[in-house]
Specification:
Blueprint: H1 5-10, H2 13-24, H3 27-30, H4 34-43, H5 48-59, H6 64-68, E1 108-109, E2 123-124, H7 127-130, E3 131-133, H8 137-146, H9 150-174, E4 176-180, H10 185-195, E5 203-204, E6 207-209, E7 217-219, E8 228-234, E9 255-257, H11 260-276, H12 293-298, H13 300-317, E10 327-330, E11 333-338, E12 343-348, E13 357-364, E14 377-380, E15 392-394, E16 401-405, E17 410-416, E18 420-429, H14 430-442, H15 447-450, H16 454-468, H17 480-491, H18 495-505, H19 512-517, H20 521-533
Parallel strand pairs: 1-6, 2-15, 3-4
Antiparallel strand pairs: 4-16, 5-8, 6-7, 8-9, 8-11, 10-18, 11-18, 12-17, 13-16, 13-18, 14-15, 14-17
Helix pairs in contact: 2-5, 8-9, 8-13, 9-13, 10-13, 16-18, 16-20
Length: 538
């Protein structure tokens, strides 16, 4: 429960005590030898006195509250102000705009608490309770699609249907499900080999910050979301609408990077590599670069994994879950890598703007993953009567498939101490998606902010950091001269940058500089605090 030494730094003694109590109360732990369990806790950063206290709570001789009142943090100071189990403040009610095309995932955050949620109070996923043995569903689906032997086809269909029924039942009961061994170690190895050439081309991910659902900014805030992503196009179900993915792929059934620029770079790199081996592969000169057939073959593992997940979700799971029955298509696939330096993704809900996404599916590609590597998918779930239940942690082990409702389940990625890779897909409900696409076509509130260039977005983020920094001579407060100087600097920003800032600040004026000039000192201090909570301070 304490994780590595790095995660221990993030936890106070009170938090480690509560984590130890939750750990000891698990049925699977209660039956194990006491000495072995205590040694495990020591290795994971729980001190002997905390182990004794936790056991006293579990045995019923003490209560967690009277022990809490005596707990000290790591520096020896009273620790009564800890907010154990706290979660990040609620995210904004909606994201920016409905993405036309499948390469968008910038969850909305109205404010961000970068210290909350670090208590390891989750109950690790127990195999007998929440995991479904997949027995290589991907291979079974391949058998269903390819074999001509009726007996083998029927047997494979039956086994797939059994797993799908388990997933559907679990989704309806708790909003999420986890399938172990959905795809084999061999397919994991193929996918990892496929994506290795893409590693230099991943881009820092973004979140949406703003007080309004229509105006704000997609910005990079590593302390909130620390992954790097790359979008893959192709292998979509035949029923997919053109608004559900960014573009088609020339090679039938092929998969390739959605970015034409990245596609061209990868193709050129591959061609150069093949030339050294005296291969006949070539890159077409001029115009759009064409990936040679050997490159399509490089992504065959990704293609096979996507097709297996599509077949399972669309062909077997969705029809068994009432709220997923009109699901017929998915987004482009998002490859996400956490570099392993404590990077994380704070708690959020994927779809807060009715953009059509109903189900999130993650396929994990991390071989030999250990608990002390961190990086668990933490799911915040609710029980009957809207009461909170302890969050659940799912380790991102290779071959595992995690599924949850995209529009209701709050989730996060815990600090990760080893590179962590996953492939994410979102499945659309047809009716909500159609409505969202039509709404996006007519929505005018977003104005210049939506069409802002990357440079204009960076200008807005830089100014937000400048605004958060106290000016020289303002140690006793904010002076009128400071407000005027900031307003003049804001007025020199492009209109799109000002509109982004207006949305982030929650002011009605299109021109942020106008609103800034009207602020009183207390207003500016409040705005600084707001931007700092968004993670935008320098």
């Amino acid at each position: 429960p304490g994780g590595t030494d790095a995660s221990r730094v993030l936890m106070s003694r009170r938090q480690r005590l509560r984590a130890a109590v939750a750990f000891l109360e698990k049925p699977s732990i209660a039956s194990r030898p006491r000495a072995a369990v205590d040694e495990y806790l020591r290795r994971h950063g729980v001190d002997d006195d905390l182990i004794d206290a936790a056991r006293a709570v579990v045995d019923g001789t003490r209560t967690i509250d009277d022990i809490d009142s005596l707990s000290l943090d790591d520096e020896g100071r009273p620790n009564d102000d800890d907010d154990v189990g706290a979660e990040p403040e609620e995210e904004a009610s909606a994201s920016s705009t409905v993405p036309l095309g499948g390469t968008a995932h910038a969850p909305a955050f109205e404010s961000i608490d970068q210290s909350a949620g670090d208590a390891i109070d989750a109950i690790s996923a127990e195999p007998e309770l929440i995991r479904i043995a997949g027995t290589d569903v991907a291979t079974l689906l391949s058998t269903v699609a390819d074999t001509k032997k009726k007996t083998a086809k029927r047997a494979a269909k039956s086994r797939v249907a059994e797993r799908a029924a388990q997933v559907a039942e679990t989704l309806q009961a708790q909003g999420w499900a986890c399938v172990d061994g959905f795809f084999s170690d061999a397919l994991t190895a193929r996918v990892l080999k496929d994506i290795e050439p893409l590693e230099p081309h991943y881009e820092a991910s973004e979140i949406w910050v703003g007080a309004d659902s229509a105006v704000g900014a997609q910005v990079v805030v590593p302390s909130v979301r620390g992954d790097k992503v790359l979008w893959m196009c192709g292998a979509h179900p035949k029923a997919a609408a053109t608004a559900d993915f960014s573009r088609t792929v020339a090679e039938k059934g092929g998969v390739e990077p959605c970015s034409e620029t990245i596609k061209a770079k990868v193709a050129a790199e591959l061609s150069a590599s093949l030339s050294k081996k005296k291969s006949s592969a070539k890159v077409r000169a001029g115009g759009a670069t064409t990936l040679p057939k050997s490159q399509v073959a490089l992504f065959a593992g990704v293609r096979d994994l996507l097709k297996a997940v599509d077949a399972f979700v669309l062909g077997d799971v969705a029809r068994r879950v009432p709220r997923l029955r009109d699901v017929s298509s998915r987004s482009d696939a998002m490859l996400a890598v956490y570099p392993g330096d404590g990077s994380r993704f704070q708690a959020h809900v994927d779809n807060t703007s009715a953009d059509g996404r109903k189900l999130t599916v993650l396929a994990y590609l991390n071989r030999e993953w250990r608990d002390d590597h961190g990086g668990a998918l933490r799911l915040h779930v609710r029980g009957g009567g809207e009461c909170d239940l302890p969050p659940r942690d799912v380790a991102p082990r290779a071959g595992r498939l995690a599924l949850f409702f995209a529009d209701t389940v709050k989730h996060e990625v815990r600090p990760t101490w080893r590179p962590r890779t996953a492939l994410t897909m979102w499945y659309y409900g047809a009716a909500e998606r159609r409505a969202a696409v039509e709404r996006a076509k007519t929505e005018s509130a977003v104005g210049a902010a939506v069409s802002a260039t990357d440079a204009e977005r960076r200008d807005a983020q830089r100014f937000a950091a400048t605004l958060c920094a106290p000016a020289p001579g303002d140690s006793a407060g904010v002076s009128a001269a400071t407000i005027e100087a900031l307003a003049s600097e804001a007025a020199a920003l492009p209109a799109a940058s000002q509109q982004i800032l207006a949305g982030m600040a929650g002011v009605p004026e299109t021109h942020f500089a106008v609103a800034l000039r009207r602020m009183r000192p207390d207003d500016l201090l409040a705005l600084r605090a707001r931007f700092a909570k968004m993670g935008l301070a320098a």
